[in-house]
Structure to design on (1074 residues):
């Protein structure tokens, strides 16, 4: 018993030594030094041009000063960014990271009752990976299985903080719509189950109309009730609060942004018409791969367009997509952003933006705007993020090359003036993490052996050999275990 | 002369009848649990939990309650005295969240085709649910107290393992029903009920899938929120309507709202699932979100709690403490894991630190109790509790989490949970420290009825025939007919080992034995990501077998044949090829 206790204590000590540096990372946010000075960098402000050999002074999470010669105040942490580039944090306008469980409530056509904000998962490693790609803000959306999908939320990728600290304070909440093949699913059926309405594009339109007609009536019952209460009527029984229709009423009142997934020009125009009829605005079209065909109409409606750089033909409604989409819409006066819709794609949005220089001839700064200031405007958060201006949040990304270069690699990502991703530190911590993994696996193996050692001979499996010795099991076995 | 004879015969007859009657009832008096209601355990170590342990003390029980406890208490003359030298007496143990006593979970009557509480998707029994108004998976009127089945073998095995009391709830759906406190003894099911209802467990498993609302976690959360909103509205609307019905459209009646509204008035506990840190923090917010009439919040209790080591301080910081029921089935690696697949560091840390959660909760001042979770053998429950002691929990605190604290949480501490005069006489008597592996449980008292502990079933009689070989099993699950192969190896003393292969993968037999022609063995397979015990019991005859498969409260019949060696090889390869075909489909759909 004594020896056991001692070796156990030794393992625990070892664990603590290795665990301490980064037990903090996942559990606590990074340090927030009150003052940081980034100096000697090429600053791409996005809002007012480039500053060579520039400096940014960060105080209490905000950009306090931007210029060419800022003296480091006492106690400031200095980040020397000589030869490096600083841009505002990248904003991904279409993301599905950090969601606990399914991103779709696909059982019903109108699933506005669900809210992504209820199921934010701060432990999703994709948050960290997207940070490593320079993303600081993500518009986390419901999936596209429903004509009217669930409520959405804008988050800052504050890796290490709990779910309650991720949402972007004050950002207008959103709701996801989807048009076209995904919500109508006419070629997707589960044997034995009734296909869900709608199965056509006209059905999608009808679904949206009916939902808003219901919402309008629901709003009226509440307005009538409020009037009666104001008039002193105590008898009135309040209407039942319907969580499905509440967000639609907010859309009608302009308090909730509509982000609509769409592809084809006909459905784009359809939604603009329906919105006009019911008196609400579509905030952004998402994907909008045929947006170039109806760019003038989108611009006239004041709706933003958030699209891919060059994805096309992966389904019939994407056949007419062209990589010039973003550039054409920009030239026609639409506020355009480029998004990822994918955790991996989000790690190189800087390069996706760069593609518009080749396809469409956007300038360097116009291209950079597509992943910084434009998505900020679309999400209504441009007063706080999207460019490097005094007073805005210190959401910054430091690259080793021009961010629109294929050679650019993120060195540090800051949010609210804290370094949430540091490439050098990540590399230096890898060995320690591997060691900790080995220690924990050894510990488990020992416990397992001790357990099977207690069994009678003849019972239980023989102790497994070293992983390298055991032949690799046939592929089907491994997959079938995971198939459950 | 004849009359005297006749009278004597009548007397003889009367005497014989009386004797027979006495003989008939006599076994009752000395059968298990049917003994005299007066007991005294003299000279034992008594651990009351509500106070410090007493050495060489006596406890007296009569009519189901403790009548005296102490060093020199008077023992009534008609008490059955048990010499307690070398024995330790603890309060009967509490399993604070299970479904022991309830038969296999049938799909909820009147509910739509939602899955069971364990997440297993049942075939749609009724209409598809198209939204919260269809009340999917919602049967809060079901009461555990009404559904007790004495044929549940676990009543016996839990009691034998020292558990005198359980809190059992129906399983199936998001609002499966009402939990009751049950004492594990009684000739009639109703005698087991100590208090009902005590809690409404909630499950956030969306059993829906595509086509059935809810099909996602956020759907389940939104649904639960809507249910509480509707309940609150209903209570208010009904009250207002009753006062002034004229000229007002009548509020609709909904059974869920009625039942939950009643429960809310009585401040019945609501059990909220939360195991990892994200769920735990979310649960704290849900308690605030699920409001009732007059802004009252639900009385929440968290169940799961295995990552409490990260969140304990936050739970403890709340003004109104939320108790936590800790699942003792600690996370473990899969038994047949691919050795090349390395688990993530986060998973390794979780498995390593989970048993330290109770200690963290204790430190943060959060009341917590233990429950069996997915553990199927009561002695494993105590082993798991011991693990939490090894990870830093004080042994007294561990004992309290199995006795007085659950009684306090469920508001029955005024009548059970500790050895105090007047409380219900539930005891477990051991020959040593409860958490020591070598300790044996000697006897159990439930409601003052005595039960001798039985040794675990070992093969008593040699097996009749040899079960070794490749068997083909066939059974029908809620998902349809299935088959699997069973590669059995029977040792000469009847111990079973081997593997099963089915569309769910391969699993080894953890333990098993054969006795004459009866067999039983247990495997462990992941179901929806959680390692779950599956028990096969039955009889065999030569090369055929039949019996029952018990998993997560379901009991499925199965048959098995042992084909000749050639046929067995063909069967084996058939399963292999189907496995790979199915897996490619499943992989594609991901």
């Amino acid at each position: 018993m004594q020896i056991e206790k001692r070796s156990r204590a030794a393992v625990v000590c070892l664990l603590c030594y290795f665990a301490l540096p980064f037990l903090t990372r996942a559990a606590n946010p990074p340090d927030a030094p009150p003052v940081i000075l980034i100096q000697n960098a090429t600053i791409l402000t996005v809002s007012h041009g480039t500053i060579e050999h520039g400096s940014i002074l960060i105080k209490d999470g905000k950009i306090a000063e931007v210029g060419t010669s800022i003296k480091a105040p006492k106690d400031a942490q200095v980040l020397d960014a000589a030869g490096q580039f600083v841009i505002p944090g990248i904003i991904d306008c279409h993301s599905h990271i950090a969601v606990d469980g399914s991103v779709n409530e696909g059982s019903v056509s109108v699933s506005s009752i669900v809210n992504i904000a209820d199921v934010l998962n701060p432990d999703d490693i994709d948050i960290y990976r997207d940070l490593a790609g320079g993303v600081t803000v993500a518009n986390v959306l419901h999936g596209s299985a429903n004509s009217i999908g669930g409520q959405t939320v804008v988050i800052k990728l504050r890796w290490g903080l709990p779910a309650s600290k991720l949402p972007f304070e004050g950002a207008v909440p959103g709701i996801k719509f989807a048009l076209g093949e995904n919500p109508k699913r006419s070629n997707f059926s589960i044997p034995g189950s009734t296909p869900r309405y709608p199965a056509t594009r006209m059905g999608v339109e009808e679904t949206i109309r009916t939902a808003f007609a219901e919402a309008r009536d629901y709003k009226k019952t509440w307005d009538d009730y409020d009037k009666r209460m104001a008039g002193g009527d105590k008898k009135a029984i309040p209407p039942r609060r319907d969580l499905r229709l509440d967000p639609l009423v907010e859309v009608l009142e302009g308090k909730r942004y509509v982000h609509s997934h769409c592809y084809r020009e006909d459905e784009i125009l359809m939604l603009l018409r329906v919105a006009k009829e019911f008196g609400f605005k579509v905030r952004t079209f998402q994907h909008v791969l045929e947006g170039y065909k109806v760019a003038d109409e989108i611009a006239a409606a004041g709706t933003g367009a958030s699209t891919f750089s060059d994805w096309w033909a992966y389904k019939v409604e994407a056949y007419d997509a062209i990589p010039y989409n973003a550039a054409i819409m920009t030239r026609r006066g639409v506020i355009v952003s480029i998004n990822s819709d994918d955790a991996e794609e989000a790690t190189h949005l800087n390069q996706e933006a760069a593609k518009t220089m080749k396809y469409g001839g956007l300038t360097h700064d116009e291209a950079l705007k597509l992943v910084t200031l434009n998505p900020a405007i679309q999400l209504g958060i441009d007063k706080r993020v999207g460019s490097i201006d005094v007073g805005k949040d210190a959401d910054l990304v430091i690259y080793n090359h021009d961010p629109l270069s294929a050679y650019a690699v993120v060195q540090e990502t800051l949010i609210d003036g804290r370094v949430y991703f540091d490439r050098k530190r990540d590399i230096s911590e890898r060995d320690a993490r591997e060691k900790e993994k080995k220690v924990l696996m050894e510990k488990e193996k020992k416990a397992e052996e001790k357990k099977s050692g207690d069994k009678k001979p003849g019972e239980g499996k023989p102790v497994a050999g070293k992983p390298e010795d055991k032949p690799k099991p046939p592929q089907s076995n491994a997959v079938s275990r995971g198939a459950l | 002369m004849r009359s005297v004879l006749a009278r004597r015969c009548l007397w003889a007859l009367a005497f014989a009848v009386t004797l027979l009657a006495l003989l008939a009832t006599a076994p009752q008096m000395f059968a298990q649990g049917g003994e005299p209601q007066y007991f005294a355990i003299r000279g034992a170590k008594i651990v009351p939990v509500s106070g410090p342990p007493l050495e060489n003390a006596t406890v007296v029980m009569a009519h189901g309650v403790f009548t005296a406890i102490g060093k020199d208490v008077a023992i009534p003359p008609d008490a059955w005295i048990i010499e307690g030298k070398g024995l330790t007496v603890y309060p009967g143990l509490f399993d604070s969240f299970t479904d022991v006593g309830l038969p296999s979970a049938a799909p909820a009557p009147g509910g739509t085709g939602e899955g069971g509480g364990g997440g297993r998707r049942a075939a749609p029994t009724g209409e598809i649910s198209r939204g919260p108004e269809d009340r999917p998976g919602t049967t809060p009127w079901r009461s555990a107290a009404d559904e007790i089945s004495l044929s549940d073998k676990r009543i016996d095995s839990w009691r034998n393992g020292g558990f005198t009391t359980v809190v059992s709830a129906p399983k199936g759906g998001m609002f499966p029903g009402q939990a009751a406190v049950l004492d594990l003894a009684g000739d009639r099911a109703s005698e087991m009920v100590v208090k009902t209802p005590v809690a409404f467990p909630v499950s956030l498993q969306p059993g829906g899938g595509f086509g059935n609302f809810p099909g996602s976690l956020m759907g389940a959360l939104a649904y639960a929120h809507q249910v509480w909103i509707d309940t609150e509205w209903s209570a208010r609307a009904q009250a207002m309507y009753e006062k002034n019905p004229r000229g007002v459209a009548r509020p609709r009646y909904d059974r869920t709202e009625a039942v939950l509204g009643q429960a809310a008035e009585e401040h019945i506990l609501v059990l909220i699932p939360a195991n990892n840190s994200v769920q735990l923090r979310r649960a704290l917010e849900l308690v605030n979100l699920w409001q009732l009439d007059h802004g009252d919040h639900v009385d929440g209790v968290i169940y799961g709690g295995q990552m409490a080591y990260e969140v304990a301080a936050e739970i403890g910081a709340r003004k109104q403490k939320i108790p936590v029921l800790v699942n003792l089935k600690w996370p473990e690696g899969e038994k047949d894991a691919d050795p090349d697949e390395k688990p993530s560091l986060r998973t390794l840390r979780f498995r390593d630190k989970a048993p330290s959660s109770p200690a963290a909760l204790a430190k943060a001042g959060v009341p917590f109790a233990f429950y069996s979770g997915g553990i199927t053998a009561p002695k494993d429950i105590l082993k798991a509790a011991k693990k939490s002691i090894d990870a830093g929990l004080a042994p007294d605190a561990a004992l309290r989490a199995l006795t007085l604290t659950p009684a306090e949480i469920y508001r029955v501490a005024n009548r059970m949970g500790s050895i105090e005069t007047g409380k219900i006489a539930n005891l477990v008597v051991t020959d040593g420290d409860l958490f020591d592996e070598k300790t044996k449980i000697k006897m159990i008292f439930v409601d003052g009825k005595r039960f001798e502990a039985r040794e675990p079933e070992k093969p008593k009689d040699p097996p009749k025939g040899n079960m070794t070989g490749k068997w083909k099993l066939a059974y029908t699950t809620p998902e349809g007919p299935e088959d699997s192969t069973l590669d059995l190896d029977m040792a000469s003393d009847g111990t079973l080992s081997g593997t099963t292969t089915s569309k769910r993968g391969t699993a080894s037999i953890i333990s098993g034995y054969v006795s004459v022609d009866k067999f039983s063995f247990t495997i462990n397979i992941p179901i929806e990501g959680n390692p779950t015990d599956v028990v096969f019991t039955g009889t065999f005859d030569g090369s055929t077998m039949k019996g029952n498969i018990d998993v997560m409260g379901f009991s499925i019949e199965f048959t098995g044949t042992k084909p000749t060696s050639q046929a067995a090889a063909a069967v084996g390869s058939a399963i292999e090829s189907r496995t790979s075909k199915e897996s490619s489909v499943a992989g594609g759909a991901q």
Remarks:
- Residues 15-27, 455-484 of chain A have pLDDT under 50 and may be disordered.
- Residues 423-454 of chain A form the longest helix (32 residues).
